[in-house]
Design goal:
Strand content of chain B: under 5%
Helix content of chain B: over 70%
Mean pLDDT of chain B: 82
Structural class of chain B: mainly alpha
Oligomer: heterotrimer
Low-confidence stretches of chain A: 258-262
Largest interface: B-C, 42 and 44 residues
Strand order of the largest sheet of chain B: 1-2
Radius of gyration of chain A: 18 Å
Number of strands of chain B: 2
Distance between the termini of chain A: 38 Å
Radius of gyration of chain B: 21 Å
Strand order of the largest sheet of chain A: 6-7-8-3-9-10
Structural class of chain A: alpha/beta
Shape of chain A: globular
Shape of chain B: globular
Mean pLDDT of chain A: 82
Helix content of chain A: 25-40%
Chains: A alpha/beta (262), B mainly alpha (357), C mainly alpha (350)
Number of helices of chain B: 14
Distance between the termini of chain B: 22 Å
Order of helices and strands of chain A: HEEEHEEHEHHHEHEHEEHH
Number of helices of chain A: 10
Order of helices and strands of chain B: HHHHHHHEEHHHHHHH
Chain lengths: 262, 357, 350
């Protein structure tokens, strides 16, 4: 599957994975996003930084389809998805994680990941119980292994520690061979050891899998991306490489004291 | 609809009053607005002009049409009274009070008993309002207050309460149909300026309509306007609107939320009780009316939009007219008419015509 | 969010899975045995009027439990769906109203009736699922009421106020399915099949997805599930469970009238499901048995208490209130808590 995607990417040439043009979002008279234009190439790793209220999460919600933008277009691998409902975008290879884990508390870890794998497969509506060696179940188990949660695979999610739940969040996003990922503050509430683990997982993702990561913790964010977009008051403030952003005096002024841990 | 848009003092300063929204809707749907305007004008002509013979052959007599119109409007007034309490309670406390019909019927029975005991009609309203309001207060304080946030459980409790209340009222008042008699000073018809027909000698025949229905409708409108004023111009109204908007914010703002809830529930219940006296005068007080008016409230607020008082007014008017015109022109399917409107609204605008979501 | 059954059932679903892995409870075997040999011990009256009726009501309530407990959607339209099937079998098949009934043979009338009822249930679901959860009760109640008023008004197809009489189970394969013992097995058969279907589907991808939607619809959408389509499909499945029960109900009473689908019976099905327990498929059947026993013997009980026999609804209402106020997960919930207290060290987690 990964090979097929990589081939498809090469065939499409210079199509951007994500392309936003003039995206604006208003809630009544509150302008959350103002004329946001950005593009992300396939396989690119980008961080979107900004203080609280800069519009980062609203941007993410628009991209995933939680609500439509007030104006502007969103293209995903060349396809105009502006009017698509969330599940249509997901089926085209987009995935996201949530700042506050949205997991299925009453189901087991394996069930959660299994659901994630099911979501993008044909077996969604199946009334038949999967056999023990079912392919989807296998990939679910593999995913649980990839995020180091084998030990608690059968445990109910409500009983997991916070850090484990965040790992499960990531696992859910990796289900079903995504083409592009959106991470919403994945490091929130993690211990230093868990943060290191997260960085390892992100750095270990396949090369074709691009992602956008929203983070307060610049330490984590700048280590796992190749480009940075800075937002302020719903607009794009600056773009550049991690080194450029870190060195920029305007950025220093804006984020004095916002460096570590948000 | 000449009301000035009542702006809500919110952090976003958005003009969310009815007037402002209407202006924006007209902007965005020019054709739809034009169509509705044309229909309204045609309707007005039907009401005010003398019908040519061909029209009478097609639609039946003008008297029937105009009677249905007025009956529909006055019935709408009654539905508005009942539905407003329901929508207020839901809007502020997120409580789908399926015992609302029972409160209505209780008010009706109380009104009947008061009139039986005293022979006076107006005090019946007061008695019904006060006693049913007390019941509402007790319910909120003793029961619902302890179930904050458990919407489903609250609704199930109201279902249980409605079953118990219905049987208790059946026990107390029996299964007969009672009617609250119209007082002397309201009895009799009134000559309306609507022309029904022109006699051979050129004399116009005017519509004669029961005075009591007109008075009660006028009272509903007055109550509606007073309510609008309270909600939009007083401090307590601001609190209610803020609470409908964002309950958590209200809670952390230091306001005595529980007191507000209790008052609103009591008021909503009292309103339903008063409506019971109205319904008892218009129609009857009997077992089964509680279900009927609960369902009417449901349909009205689904159509108008839960939590919206203008929505309740619009929905009540539409449903009242639909029911009356239906029962005159399509008698077998009159009830289905209103449910059809509900289904259409659900299919195309699930949040209700004036709903906020 | 349905805070009443969801938290109770979410834990139960996982506990269920663990238990299922261990095999059926010994009590289940006992129950199955008793139900199978019941005709040998019970009188005709008990067989049909008590157990037959309880099994039918239990199946209809099961369809509600499926939607509410596993889907988070409290649907008051289930009794109506059953009623649609019952009416259709009277209209399409043979009845006392020969001027309306089409007289189709049962093997045609029954499947078509079920199909029409499933269609009705699916359409109702389509109307009810596009809004927030709490509105589902309101909308389904309104639909149920609309159907009730419609059947009452309509003379030409639905027989108006009096409905249809003379609707009986057919005779085929040499068996008169109207007679008590075969009819009982018919009711038992469908109840068992319906129960089995629910237990099965709940662990299949479809059922799992439904529970995911119950717990977190937003996340399910973000995982690629079409939440609305899934919910509507759940309504269709529930309608398929309720429809045959509606036909059996009509055959049981030999008639169907607007009163069968009135607001009272519609709410009674909710009461049965909630009092029994929305956590597991066996709950509604417990509730149904209780309801039927109460219905049949309440008169004597009430008189013994010095009240008029007419105060039955009061008993129902009070019982329902007490359950919702003090044991929201119903009798099943009480049983679970009692069992846990006595077996202490089970530690299955809530």
């Amino acid at each position: 599957m990964a090979v097929a995607i990589a081939e498809r990417l090469q065939a499409t040439g210079t199509v951007n994975a994500l392309e936003l043009r003039g995206v604006t979002k208003q809630f009544g008279a509150l302008v959350a996003l103002a004329d946001v234009t950005l593009s992300v190439r396939p396989g690119e790793r980008r961080a979107i930084l900004g203080s609280n209220g800069a519009g980062k999460t609203t941007l993410l919600n628009c991209i995933t389809g939680d609500f439509p933008p007030s104006s502007g277009t969103i293209r995903f691998f060349g396809e105009d998805v502006t009017g698509f409902p969330a599940h249509e975008r997901i089926r085209r290879g987009l995935r996201r994680t949530y700042q506050i884990s949205l997991l299925f508390g009453g189901l087991s870890v394996l069930d959660n990941v299994h659901l994630a794998c099911l979501g993008v497969s044909r077996g969604r509506f199946s009334l038949l119980r999967p056999r023990r060696d079912d392919a989807l179940l296998e990939s679910a188990r593999a995913l649980v292994h990839a995020v180091h949660l084998d030990a608690v695979a059968e445990k109910k999610v409500a009983e997991l520690a916070h850090g484990q739940q965040r790992q499960l969040e990531v696992a859910l996003a990796l289900a079903g061979a995504p083409r592009f990922l959106l991470f919403d503050e994945p490091a929130a509430g993690l211990s230093p050891a868990e943060r290191a683990d997260l960085v390892a997982i992100l750095q270990g993702l396949p090369a074709h899998m691009g992602y956008v990561i929203i983070e307060h913790d610049m330490d984590v964010a700048l280590r796992v991306v190749e480009s940075v977009t800075l937002m302020h008051d719903g607009r794009i403030f600056k773009e550049g490489t991690p080194a450029e952003i870190e060195a920029d005096p305007e950025v220093q002024e804006l984020y004095l004291g916002h460096g570590r841990g948000g | 609809m000449a009301r000035a848009g009542a702006s809500r003092p919110g952090s976003d300063g958005a003009e969310r009053g009815t007037g402002g929204r209407l202006a924006r809707w007209i902007e965005r749907h020019p054709l739809g607005a034009l169509l509705i305007a044309v229909l309204l004008v045609a309707f007005l002509w039907l009401v005010l002009a003398d019908w040519p013979d061909e029209l009478e052959r097609l639609l039946g007599r003008k008297r029937v049409f105009v009677s249905a119109l007025f009956n529909g409007i006055t019935l709408g007034g009654l539905y508005f009274l009942v539905a407003t309490g329901f929508t207020l309670i839901f809007g502020l406390m997120r409580n789908v009070n399926l015992a609302h019909g029972s409160l209505y019927l209780f008010g009706g029975y109380l009104g009947y008993s008061t009139v039986q005991a005293t022979g006076l009609w107006l005090p019946a309203f007061l008695v019904a309002f006060l006693l049913v309001a007390v019941v509402g207060l007790l319910l909120q304080v003793l029961v619902f207050r302890h179930m904050e946030g458990q919407e489903l459980r609250q609704t199930l409790v109201t279902i249980g309460l409605s079953i118990v209340f219905a049987d208790l009222m059946l026990w107390a008042w029996g299964g007969d149909f009672y009617q609250i008699p119209t007082p002397e000073w309201l009895a009799g018809p009134v000559d309306m300026p609507i022309v029904l027909d022109v006699r051979a000698n050129g004399e116009p025949v005017h519509l004669r309509y029961p005075r009591v229905r007109l008075v009660i409708f006028a009272a509903s409108v007055v109550i509606g306007l007073l309510l609008w004023l309270v909600i939009n111009r007083t401090r307590i109204g601001t609190l209610v609107r803020a609470g409908v908007d964002d309950r958590e914010m209200l809670a952390v703002s230091g306001v005595r939320v529980q007191l507000l809830f209790a008052l609103v529930f009591a008021f909503g219940a009292g309103l339903a009780g008063m409506a019971g006296v109205v319904g008892g005068t218009f129609q009857s007080v009997s077992p089964g009316e509680d279900t009927r008016f609960l369902l009417a409230s449901l349909v009205v607020v689904i159509v108008g939009g839960l939590g919206s008082i203008p929505g309740a007014a619009l929905g009540a008017l539409l449903i009242g007219l639909a029911e009356q015109f239906g029962s005159v022109y399509l008698p077998t399917y009159a009830i289905v008419f209103s449910f059809l409107i509900m289904v259409l609204v659900l299919a195309f605008r699930p949040q209700g015509l004036l709903g906020l979501r | 969010m349905a805070s009443l059954p969801a938290s109770a059932t979410a834990g139960r679903a996982a506990a269920d899975a663990a238990e299922a892995a261990r095999g059926p409870h010994p009590a289940a075997w006992l129950l199955a045995a008793v139900l199978l040999v019941l005709p040998a011990i019970a009188s005709d009256f008990f067989l049909v009027q008590v157990f037959g009726w309880a099994l039918i009501l239990g199946t209809i309530a099961l369809s509600l439990q499926f939607l509410a407990g596993y889907g988070g959607m409290v649907s008051l339209v289930q009794m109506t769906v059953a009623g649609v099937a019952g009416y259709m079998v009277a209209i399409l098949g043979s009845s006392g109203l020969a001027q309306i009934s089409l007289g189709w043979p049962f093997w045609l009338a029954v499947p078509v009736a079920i199909l029409l009822a499933v269609l009705f249930g699916t359409l109702s679901g389509a109307l009810a699922v596009r809004t927030e959860g709490i509105y589902t009760i309101m909308i389904t109640l309104a639909i149920a009421a609309a159907f009730f008023y419609f059947t009452r008004q309509n003379e030409t197809v639905f027989g108006g106020f009096l409905g249809f009489n003379g609707v009986r189970a057919p005779v085929f394969w040499g068996v008169d399915w109207r007679s008590p013992v075969p009819f009982y097995y018919l009711c038992l058969g469908w109840a068992v099949i319906a129960w089995g279907l629910v237990v099965w589907v709940v662990r299949a991808p479809f059922g799992l997805a439904l529970q995911g939607i119950r717990d977190n619809a937003r996340r399910m959408a973000a995982l690629g599930f079409d939440v609305t389509a899934h919910r509507i499909a759940a309504y269709a499945f529930a309608a398929f469970l309720a429809a045959p029960a509606g036909i059996l109900l009509t055959w049981l009473n030999g008639q169907i009238a607007p009163g069968t689908v009135g607001i009272g019976p519609v709410i009674d099905v909710l009461v049965i499901a909630v009092v029994g327990g929305l956590g597991r498929p066996i709950g509604p059947f417990i509730g149904a048995l209780l309801y039927v026993l109460l219905r049949i013997f309440a008169l004597d009980a009430l008189v013994a208490l010095g009240l008029s026999g007419q105060r039955f609804q009061l008993l129902i209402g009070l019982g329902f209130l007490v359950t919702v106020l003090f044991s929201p997960d119903g009798i099943l919930g009480l049983w679970e808590r009692w069992r846990r207290r006595w077996t202490g060290a089970r530690g299955e987690g809530r």
